[in-house]
Amino acid sequence: MSHANLIAGEWVHGSDAVRNINPSDTTDLVGEYDRASAAQVEDAIAAARAAAPAWARTTVQQRAELLEKVGLEIMARRGELADLLAREEGKTLPEAAGEVGRAGQIFKFFAGEVLRIPGERLGSVRPGIDVEITREPVGVVGLITPWNFPIAIPAWKVAPALAYGNCVVLKPAELVPGCAWALADIIHRAGFPPGVFNLVVGRGSVVGEKLVSDSRIDAISFTGSVPTGRGILEKAAKRGAKVQLEMGGKNPLVVLADADMETAVRCALDGAFFATGQRCTASSRLIVEQAVHDKFVAGLTEALRKQVVDDARKQGTTIGPVVDQNQLDQDMRYVDIGKQEGARLVVGGERLNREKSGYYLAPALFDNTRNDMRINREEIFGPVASVIPVKDYDEALAVANDTSFGLCSGVVTTSLKKAAHFRRNVETGMVMVNLPTAGVDYHVPFGGRKGSSYGSREQGRYAVEFYTQVKTAYVMQS
Ligand code: ADP
């Protein structure tokens, strides 16, 4: 039986369905998920609109309890949901369990945050008047999510949206509708009023486009690729909708001559290759000071040779498959481009055969690359990273900043002075010192600069900016 869409509190079947395939074993059908028709997307938007006034007036206690319930169920079903996530997306089971735990914590965090919606009361510059600044819900939000974090990204958009009193229409990525459906089922059973949360599965060009262009949607939060994000921005801006975009990265990890080599190799391995390199925060540019270059490349190569690339749900697997054939083709195309550009492929880059037919790729490391090569300018989104040798710290910082992206960066050093200088001068929204560029907390802002992001930050209490609108009230004292 195919999984339906959640519209106005009802499970509604569609006319055709997405086949959700396991990337570790392409003979394994995870499930079928109905695509919402254009008319059904209209229904979902109308339901959210109709539910919005009453939902905005609910007490913070009501909303806190519902969000808490969702968070607790996600946590209680962590193992089962992690299995589903690993099966549909290809993260290893420990990685998947980490992501599910994060999704649960996010709901619990916003269950608390809903009680602390900020406001201000100030004196007026005129006599006998009080000024009060409050935050009100934006209204109906359209949430469009990518495939690489099938439950955490929906969670970090849906939880604050609901917490701050908005109604939601969620469109997950077609490759991974399973986790989004499970989340919708949990939200539905928690007892949210009909229409407050709606799930519509389908193509970006149909369902996504509709959310972006419909004037009944007040705000769009999107995570995905740069071209899609830019297109959404143009369309949404034309009709004056609020927009928040999280897009790509080409994140630098700088390894300085004074670095602890074990830490450097660990950060590079985790940041560039875990989760199959399919994270927008992945360290795809490894900028290494000449003095430690050979040692670093030898250490990372050795670590890569020890990785076990196999079925995401098999015990002992350290790197799961690439998500699908398209992504695998893209990764391998970039491996060829790197070779043609004159980079030295040190290890990996070849398709692997395993017991099951999956999209297995040996993690690839390029050396002797220059920052102006395409493999260092364009986001690959796979287990492919490049070493860019530099002569000193100043060059390392300049290379780190020489990119159109600005999501995350990292530096591995034992020098307090250089770490402090890097933190101050690197042009990214997030910066890591002696830590991998990927792997962030759930209670603090997430987001980038330059071409990586647009609009206000996601997560933590900074999420209030996007999911509320400010009202300034002037009241004459009686
Ligand atoms: P990726 O698939 O590489 O994560 P995309 O930007 O293609 O990146 O997709 C991210 C999300 O945006 C998905 O849910 C996708 O269906 C959706 N999407 C794709 N194209 C559009 C579009 N034109 N309008 C709105 N959403 C879209």
Description:
The protein is an alpha/beta fold and 478 residues long. Helices cover 40% and strands 22% of the residues. It is built from 15 helices and 22 strands. The chain has a 7-stranded mixed sheet, sandwiched between helices. Helix 2 (60-76) packs antiparallel against helix 4. The protein binds adenosine-5'-diphosphate. Adenosine-5'-diphosphate binds next to helix 7 and helix 8.
SSE layout:
Layout: E1 5-7, E2 10-12, E3 17-22, E4 25-34, H1 38-57, H2 60-76, H3 78-89, H4 93-113, E5 120-123, E6 129-137, E7 140-144, H5 152-163, E8 167-171, H6 177-190, E9 197-199, H7 204-213, E10 219-223, H8 226-238, E11 242-246, E12 252-255, H9 261-273, E13 285-289, H10 290-305, H11 325-340, E14 344-347, E15 351-352, E16 360-361, E17 364-367, H12 374-377, E18 384-390, H13 393-401, E19 408-412, H14 416-425, E20 430-433, E21 453-454, H15 464-467, E22 468-476
Parallel strand pairs: 7-8, 7-10, 8-9, 10-11, 12-13, 12-19, 13-18, 17-18, 19-20
Antiparallel strand pairs: 1-2, 3-4, 5-6, 6-22, 11-21, 14-17, 15-16
The structure holds adenosine-5'-diphosphate.
Task: List its traits.
single chain, alpha/beta, Aldehyde Dehydrogenase, Chain A, domain 1, 2 domains, seven-stranded mixed β-sheet, 15 helices, binds adenosine-5'-diphosphate
Q: In a few lines, what is going on in this structure?
A:
This protein has helices spanning 38-57, 60-76, 78-89, 93-113, 152-163, 177-190, 204-213, 226-238, 261-273, 290-305, 325-340, 374-377, 393-401, 416-425, 464-467; strands at residues 5-7, 10-12, 17-22, 25-34, 120-123, 129-137, 140-144, 167-171, 197-199, 219-223, 242-246, 252-255, 285-289, 344-347, 351-352, 360-361, 364-367, 384-390, 408-412, 430-433, 453-454, 468-476. The protein is an alpha/beta fold and 478 residues long.
